Amino acid sequence: MSGLNVRSTLVLPMRADSGALLAEKADVTMLVEDVPEHLDTVLHSGPNWEINKSSFLLNLPDTGRFMATDGDRISICPAPDMPVEDVLVFATGTGMSAILYQRGAMLLHASAVVCNGRAYLFCGPSGVGKSTLSAALCRAGCDFLSDDLCAVVQQDGGPPMVERDGRALRLYTDSIERLALEDSAGPRVRQFVEKFHVAPPTTSDDGGAVPIAAIYMLTASDPAQDPTITRMTPLNAAQALLRQSYRRQIALAYANETGLAGRIGALAAGTGVYHLSRPRDLLRLDDTTAVLMKHWQSLSLA
Amino acid sequence: MATLPAGLIWLASYPKSGNTWMRVLFANVLSGSDQPCNINQLSEEELLISRWRFCDDLLVEPETLYPAELAVLRAMQGAFVARNLEKPFVCKTHDKYQPEITGVPASRSLYIVRDPRDVAISLSHHAGISIDEAIGQMLDPTCHSNGPMQLRYALGDWASHVTGWTGQKDVPVEVIRYEDLRRDTRAEFARIVRSLGGTATSAEIDRAIGHSSLGEMQRQETTYGFRERLPHQERFFRSGQTGEWRQVLDADQICRIEDAFAPVMKQWGYSPLHHD
User: Fold this and answer.
1) CA of B73, closest CA in chain A: separation in Å?
2) Residues of chain A neighbouring B69 (CB-CB closer than 8 A)
3) Second-level CATH architecture of B7-115+149-240
4) How distant is the Cα of A93 from the closest Cα of chain B, in angstroms?
5) Among A46, A71, A102, where does a domain finish?
6) Which residues contact A208 (CB under 8 A, 6 or more apart)?
7) In angstroms, what separates the C-alpha of B269 from chain A's closest C-alpha?
8) Measured between CB atoms, which of B64, B76, B149 is closest to A47?
9) In angstroms, what separates the C-alpha of A221 from chain B's closest C-alpha?
10) Which residue on chain B is closest to A49 by alpha carbon?
11) Closest CA in chain A for residue B236
């Protein structure tokens, strides 16, 4: 996940590949074990979470408690009568993001596809249509890179890159039907949630991180309007990127350790960040993919 | 400059009862600007009914939660936010009143009530459904609602919505009738600001009203669009009329509404045609 090997005794239904696990050394271990209700010496907190020097704790009453510790251990403690399989999504989503932040990562709430060896990211809040747009672009010939969470890395003056993720797309039934992905649909995200893990239509196998070509802030427009793409100023881009940090409050809590502000600033200054406004109507999905493809052509000619 | 006291103020109503207009009025009176506020920058994402805000505060995505889990976390979120506010936060909600969710330590609440016969017409335009379907929704005690950017929330039927908010004792509530606000916006809006513990000069009230006029909102919607408009809607800011039901609803439709809601309608000065 996001460039890390995860060892777990649990079956993780969100894996995009169904092959055998690699026998590499695990970076992170995921365990079912007791998790305290509170942490000692809390440094940051929210309504249902706490952070101290070594751990992040997420408390979902009647669902479970989850703890990420020292960047290498995710503890899962389901509430009584709650099957562990039904709470895994919180461990692999929020829990894994805390692990990545503890390891110094920069994460965006974004889905990403690859076209001609370059990554295109789509940022936006839950429900805005990131996964559906990514799946539609894969249908149009792109390769799938990451769904929902993008880990951005930048080394020694090189271009900003996105780690390839091993998690499947998560789509609602209407998007699955619109994209004719019924045969790729796997289990539900949770037992009674109408959202499904879906194997991406195409996945590049060459592994490793991919350089970022452009980042789009996805918003829903007035339904009558056509999709539009406008470049954001570096200042607006930096504000938008910070706002779209994955689990932003955790990112802010670890901001000093991860150097968040400097990395956001550098990403905003060195990468094209655009506002993509398009109607949410699934029937007009092809309009958006066409506008994007045209935009990518103009970027490659520039 | 106009002020409101720090803390959480619920701006509650059944849908299509003037909530957006009231938000625009508050945004304009508090902005202190000589230009009208942009209707597309009303901070939808910051509202406690927004999916973005929920995920930002609670670190889980609402669509991965079961209804009971969502309710528990919304209560935790509301209490946390209200406890830590250092500025005024006028927060729109269409939730029916539920002590565990909307009974959080808000400092005040403002409830807008509108003649349900006019609500039915506006709701049918907004939701792209027939007036009979809109009435059916208003009569449904189990009605829930959600939009792509909003949490799924319990709406209930129109009368329970009104009595739930206006009758609760947890949060001090100021009630305003939409029709009164339309009839004498200046006096009613000034009264609301005062009742919420705020201050605004007559000039600030007048400027806010001018910047929030139906004409201005329609001008912005025509020029820039409005992101809350739904695909089938010709426009979001439609007419804002009062008493339109007399021309639009047929006798059966009027009876369906009045049969169900007459006692509450009378309480708020909406005389039923068919119930003495």
Assistant:
1) 8
2) 60-63
3) 3-Layer(aba) Sandwich (3.40)
4) 8
5) A102
6) A164
7) 37
8) B76
9) 6
10) B58
11) A222
Amino acid residing at B107: S
A94 domain-assigned: yes
Distance in angstroms (rounded) separating the CA atoms of residues B147 and B158: 19
Q: Are A239 and A264 contained in the same domain?
A: yes
Structure token digits, residue A246 = 């994955």
Whole-prediction pTM: 0.87
Instruction: Encode pLDDT of B72-94 as tens digits.
Output: 999 999 999 999 999 899 999 99
Q: Are residues A86 and A119 in the same domain?
A: no
Q: By CA distance, what is A148's nearest residue in B?
A: B61
Same domain, A115 and A97: no
Identify how many contiguous H helices and E strands chain B contains and give both numbers: 13, 6
Please tell me the distance from the alpha carbon of residue B113 to that of residue B172, in angstroms, as a whole number: 16
CA distances from A25 to A22, A72, A101, A104 (A): 9, 12, 20, 20
In this predicted complex, what is the ipTM? Answer: 0.90
Judged by CB atoms closer than 8 Å, whether chains meet at A62 and B58 is answered as no
Chain B window 69-98: which residues touch A at a Cβ cutoff of 8 Å?
69, 72-73, 76-77, 79-81
Q: How far apart are CA A192 and CA A264, in angstroms?
A: 37
Asked whether residue A293 falls in the same domain as residue A200, the answer is yes
Same structural domain for residues A148 and A233? yes
pLDDT tens, chain A, 302 aa long: 777 788 777 777 666 554 445 556 788 999 999 999 999 999 999 999 999 999 999 999 999 999 999 999 999 999 999 999 999 999 999 999 999 999 999 999 999 999 999 999 999 887 788 888 998 999 899 999 998 899 999 877 788 999 888 778 888 888 888 888 888 888 898 998 888 888 887 766 667 899 999 999 998 876 777 899 999 999 999 999 999 999 999 999 999 999 999 999 999 998 999 999 888 777 788 899 999 999 999 987 76
Contact A126 B68 (CB under 8 A): no
Residue numbers of the domain that contains A177 = 106-301
Contact B165, B99 (CB under 8 A): no
Distance between CA atoms of residues A16 and A25, nearest Å: 20
Q: Does B236 touch chain A (CB under 8 A)?
A: no
Tell whether A161 and A112 lie within a shared domain.
Answer: yes
- Residues with Cβ within 8 Å of residue A57, at least 6 apart in sequence: A35, A36, A38, A39, A49, A50, A51, A65, A66, A67
Domain shared by A129 and A225, yes or no: yes
**A:B CB pairs within 8 Å:** 93
Residues A154, A68 share a domain: no
**Measured between CA atoms, how close is A45 to chain B, in angstroms?**
10
CB contact under 8 A, A48 and B59: yes
A221 close to B (CB below 8 A): yes
A47 to B62: CB separation less than 8 angstroms, yes or no: no
Q: pLDDT tens for residues B182-228?
A: 999 999 999 999 999 999 999 999 898 887 777 777 777 777 666 66
The count of structural domains within chain A is 2
